Amino acid sequence: MKVLVVGSGGREHAICWKMAQSPEVDKIFCAPGNGGIEIEDKCSNVNITDICSLMDFALREKVDLTVVGPENPLVEGIVDKFRGSGLDIFGPSSKAAMLEGSKIYSKNFMKKYGIRTAEYAAFDNIDNALKYVETCSYPVVVKADGLAAGKGVTICKNHGEAESALNDSMIKDVFKGAGKKVIVEEFLQGVEASILAVTDGNTIIPFISSKDHKQIYDGGIGPNTGGMGAIAPNPYCSREVLQDFKENIMLPTLMGIQQEILDYKGIIFFGLMITKKGVYLLEYNVRMGDPETQAVLPLMKSDFVDLIQASLSGKLSDFNLEWEKGACCCVVAASKGYPAKYETGFEISGFKRENNIFAAGVKGEDGVFKTSGGRVLSTYGTGGNLKSAVKYAYENLKKVNFKGMYFRKDIGK
Ligand code: AMP
Ligand code: GLY
């Protein structure tokens, strides 16, 4: 079968790598892909990104299955358009993708279906929002309603910070339309966890848990990034935590999807906060997480393509999703200066599949690999336990190098 994977990051590299292992797959196109994805068996890049061109391509090439990495095309309706043309595609409809595309929609959904989440209020008027933050106890969290490339959340320690966050978002329009409406939310103290799950609308199956490392510096300090590493499973996800998650978050979410008649055959990402009062849902993403996918897929024992097909045919209840025992760690190598200004175009040495690499900001030129982004690549390691997974991930990273390579030294530690 022919597969099309939409996206260009480390997550998409991991998806292509995993799907290429399926005996059913003959060819994978990644659009637009990156220079590293092409080192995988069966994979090549196609330089297109807009939904209409992707659809023309899928029809022309007789693509049997499309898998979408990032949220934007899902929110823009790629699934509805492909299905309308008779193409099989894995992901939620645009209406279902509102669970990520609008924080107000998703918080209202959580409230309606009794899903445990932080207290909140929604505003489309700055005066009302400013009045409300006068009455809050601090810290509070201000969130842009729409998609803001992961930058729409501000934790405000005091009233002054809340006022500036509201002004930036609603008046200065720093999120380019996405922050005209906002949520003001109770601050939750705890440990974060990410759980991906697959659904066909009738059944929902959680994946092994994982943990992102968002800040740039060791110890979780400094500005947020797109993720500097991930581990799976998440050591804080005890049996009790997982049970609490299933009862109070995952199953009520499935019920909400059914009651709202959302067409959802795809992955749901639950961004969780484990607190002393139980597990809370911070957010939904309607796709796989990055970098979590890079630590989760290496542990998936089942054929990923079979899993996707079971979801698309509504037969997930018969699917036995299996995982390798042990753990996986992935460590991201970034360009010096990231997440602020950085240079690109440096040659990467040791760029080989046997070093367990997933590429993100990598360009291939005549067999030479060069940096082309902030997060350049990651290496992963698997092992019987987290400690050995971490050791192998860092051993693999030592075999790779480029000028200005920066990575955190404490992933999974
Ligand atoms: P979100 O996009 O909603 O996941 O928020 C991004 C990040 O902001 C989360 O991963 C948390 O680190 C933090 N965050 C979001 N909401 C809250 C909250 N209510 N309390 C504490 N931290 C939060
Ligand atoms: N790692 C969080 C995300 O993918 O949004």
UniProtKB/TrEMBL annotation:
EC numbers: 6.3.4.13
Domain ATP-grasp span(s) in chain numbering: 107-313
Presence of the UniProt keyword Transport in the record: no
SUPFAM superfamilies per record: Glutathione synthetase ATP-binding domain-like, PreATP-grasp domain, Rudiment single hybrid motif
SMART domains: GARS_A, GARS_C
Enzyme kind, highest EC tier: ligase
Cofactor(s) required for function per UniProt: Mn(2+)
Taxonomy, superkingdom: Bacteria
Keyword Nucleotide-binding: yes
Pathway(s) this gene product operates in, as recorded in its UniProt entry: Purine metabolism; IMP biosynthesis via de novo pathway; N(1)-(5-phospho-D-ribosyl)glycinamide from 5-phospho-alpha-D-ribose 1-diphosphate: step 2/2
GO molecular function: phosphoribosylamine-glycine ligase activity
Reactions accelerated catalytically: 5-phospho-beta-D-ribosylamine + glycine + ATP = N(1)-(5-phospho-beta-D-ribosyl)glycinamide + ADP + phosphate + H(+)
Keywords: ATP-binding, Ligase, Nucleotide-binding, Purine biosynthesis
Signal peptide per UniProt: none
Pfam families the record matches: GARS_A (PF01071), GARS_C (PF02843), GARS_N (PF02844)
InterPro entries given in the database record: ATP-grasp, ATP_grasp_subdomain_1, PreATP-grasp_dom_sf, PRibGlycinamid_synth_ATP-grasp, PRibGlycinamide_synth, PRibGlycinamide_synth_C-dom, PRibGlycinamide_synth_C_sf, PRibGlycinamide_synth_N
Family the UniProt entry places it in: Belongs to the GARS family.
HAMAP family: GARS (MF_00138)
Protein name: Phosphoribosylamine--glycine ligase
